[in-house]
Amino acid sequence: MGVCFSGDLNGGKQAIGGVQGRPTANNNAGQNEAVDHFLRVRGQCPLFTQIELSISASKLRDRDITSKSDPMAVLYVKKRDGTLEELGRTEVILNSLNPAWIEKINVAYQFEIVQHLVFHVYDVDTKYHNIPMKALKLNEQDFLGETTCVLSEIVTKRNRSLTLNLHSKNGPGGFKNFGTLTVHAEETFSSRMIVEIKLRCSQLDNKDMFSKSDPFLRISRLTENGNSVPICKTGVINNSLNPVWRPLYLSMQQFGSKDNPLLIECFDFNSNGNHVLIGQLQKSISELEKLQKDRSAANLVFPSHHGQEKVLKGQLFVDQLIEKEQFSFLDYISSGFELNFMVAVDFTASNGNPRNRDSLHYIDPLGQLNSYQQAIMEVGEVIQFYDSDRRFPAWGFGGRTYDGTLSHCFNLNGMNAYEVEGVQGIIAAYASALHNVTLAGPTLFSHVINTAAQMAGHATSNDITKYFVLLIITDGVLTDIQETMDALVRASDLPLSILIVGVGDADFKQMEILDADNGCRLENSTGRVATRDIVQFVPMREVHRGKISVVQALLEELPEQFLTYMRSRNIKPHHA
Asked: How many CB atoms lie within 10 A of CB 24?
């Protein structure tokens, strides 16, 4: 994550929020990194990108006697319990077996969730044509066919279009031809457009006694009822009454429109969280744009309890305001970029004898997944949609291999080839290795990280359309923490993210250090700081307690890490 947001101003000195490369959030809930995190830790608001689906069909069945069918499409999402939740309907098109519906259906695309979509097509009876489509009772219409897919299958297509065969409610098969359905996905325009703003102030009031103020700005969107929703805050400029801040990046989804008022507050930072208001003002993006064009400034004001405002000598300047398009995660994926999934499994003795039921590696003959299998299945199920050949490198570490050699990075399938076929191939290789590998130790990460980094580095010099994701599943405390940190700092320059799942009841404080969620990036043994945060950790026990989903907790940040890498190297989608 790299930054934390506590719900008020008790964060550190780093900038928070704005557009920092991650998917935008629910339009009704402060669409930015800071507010998203504040809501997410309370389980209220997953991140998503708004997708608009266009639907057409070809060679539909004709259910009308004297004319052609009058088709309408209905879209559902299949929930975890198997029930269908309706997301939207198209309009009814009269007398057509090859309809191209105009009405779009909006879907919240969540990278970290496998979203199963179900499409139904109906022939709407003539007597219902004057009834609003949302009021139509579907059981009174003629069923023309259905089909299913996963949303990821659509957005990963190069043209974001997927054609599916329609079939009866009994599923695919049979002799009847129900026609085809084509679905095209487009990211909503507003989620791409951003405004880059560079702000500075002059002659601020000094709020410190023995030094100068440490100012920062907080920008909030004002709602119709007068409340404010924080969008972002700048970093803190130490000991300055004339601060110049680094540029801010705001999306149109965050400020609504260029004429919506924004509340810009300037505070003096205090480490105890009791920041002191220096002054504030209200300006829309349009008004800020005018300040920049006129090269003029706006005076800060200080509110009073009596409703009167004191005009201050401190002024706000807009040195730069640029509108531009920022490429999204989906832009890269749909243009041919891929995620390459890799997995490394802990074979240290602390997992317990796999033959014993209390072992973390115990394979239940009744099919209940252990924590290792669960992590492989859940994470792999999501990542596989972004990997065209679905051949995954799979390693083990901390075990004695087939010839008795202690290895901290061995091929899970026991052969010279390190890749296996699909997620089920990983599961099968893992189960086989439990019969052929002796659990040993100690727990070392640096070997598998360096191996994954070597593959990522090779791809960088040959094919920049690949981004690598290494899943490490472990039960223990690291004995090579410094070597691991050194490996991670080196890997931060490469197209690589590392997802760590901790299983069992060990103390995982070291993993929290590797996962730089406190805003402090890792440093290696020579003092070099990581280019970016590439690690995300989650303890499986929190998943088992129902507090979090392993997929959401691990993969929610992956699009941001992907985009941070691409943008830092000015790598653009192929169609750009």
From this structure: 24
Residue 10, phi then psi, degrees to nearest 5: -85, 15
Q: Pull the structure tokens for residue 259.
A: 């004429």
Burial 5-23 (b: 16+ CB within 10 A, else e): beeebebbeebbbbbbbbb
CB 120 within 8 A of CB 74: yes
> How many residues are there in the chain?
576
Element (H, E) at 451: helix 446-462
In 3D, which of 99, 97, 93 has the Cα closest to residue 124?
A: 93
Q: What angle do CA 447, 348, 506 make, to 5 degrees?
A: 100
Cβ neighbors of 475 (< 8 A, separation 6 or more) are 346, 348, 350, 351, 360, 502, 503, 504, 506
Residue 420 to residue 525: CA distance in whole angstroms: 35
Token pair belonging to 61: 């069945």
Give φ, ψ of 165 to 5 degrees.
-80, 130
Give Cβ neighbours of residue 191 (< 8 Å, ≥ 6 apart). 24, 49, 50, 251, 252, 253, 328
**Higher per-residue confidence, 3 vs 64:** 64
Q: Is 256 left (phi over 0), alpha (psi -120 to 50) or beta?
A: left
E-only strand ranges, 240-331? 248-251, 261-268, 276-284, 297-303, 309-325
* Beta carbons within 8 Å of 539's beta carbon, 6+ residues apart: 501, 502, 508, 511
Pairing of strands 180-187, 193-202: unpaired
Query: What is the secondary structure of 159-205 as a DSSP string?
Result: TSEEEEE-BBTTBS-SS----EEEEEEEE-GGGTEEEEEEEEEESPP
- Peptide bond just before 442 cis, omega within 30 deg: yes
Query: In which band, very low, low, confident or very high, does the pLDDT at 6 lie, cut at 50, 70 and 90?
Result: very low
pLDDT tens profile 496-542: 999 998 998 888 888 878 887 655 678 899 999 899 889 988 888 77
Do β-strands 49-58 and 406-407 pair in parallel, antiparallel, or remain unpaired? unpaired
Give how far Cα 531 sits from Cα of 67, 117, 521, Å.
Answer: 65, 38, 8
Average pLDDT over residues 392-409: 94
Q: Which residues pair with residue 321 across a beta bridge? A: 197
Count H helices and E strands in the chain, helices first: 13, 27
DSSP type of residue 386: G
For the chain, give the percent of residues with pLDDT over 70. 85
Encode 403-424: b = buried (16+ Cβ within 10 Å), e = exposed: eeeebbbbbbbbeeebbbeebe
Question: How many of the other CB atoms lie within 10 Å of CB of 399?
Answer: 24
- Closest residue by Cα to residue 146 from 71, 69, 51, 65: 71
